[in-house]
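TOKENISED FOLD:
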Amino acid sequence: MVVDKGDVFVISAPSGAGKTTIINKFMETHKNDFMLSVSVTTRPARTGEKHGTHYYFFSKEKFLEYIKKGKFIEYAKIINEYYGTLKETVKSSTASGRNLIMDIDVQGAKKIKKQIKKCVTVFMMPPSFEELTDRLTKRKTDSPEAVKKRLALAKKEMKQSGKYDFVIVNRDIDETVGLLEAILKLTKFKKYKV
């Protein structure tokens, strides 16, 4: 896929690494130049999540229908739920000249990197696996069994971090946002293969 004017930045992290917090903090001061891609998911909305703002919440039937119609630039099944990014989301934001930040998993990042040459990938690591375990347990949004599955997935995802353009360890919110800003400035000088 060819993006017009804006660039695409893919940020991945294991569940509980603080990615959403960092992206939201970054967007507070960069909303004029950046747009946050809203993903589609079949998982139920959590407390406070709104359709069209945090995710587009689809039924599995509707998601599978969209797959058949080729409407996703990437999608994956993660712990029995589907997640994906609509092609239209990428086209509309980059055509307007705004940069797009995509909050997607390792599988999706790999697919995006293959399809979009003007793409920069960032992997966000937790300070330690122990802290990640603690965060997932304390947030109480998942059952103990789901937490166990998320931790097993996190180990696999963290092994893929070397395939990203940049890796950030999220020890402190302000420091991590500063590192993300530095990466995005650096990428203005990156030469893309056409």
Remarks:
- The mean pLDDT is 88.
- The radius of gyration is 16 Å.
- The longest strand covers residues 72-78.
- The beta strands are 8-12, 34-36, 40-41, 56-57, 72-78, 81-86, 99-103, 119-125, 166-169.
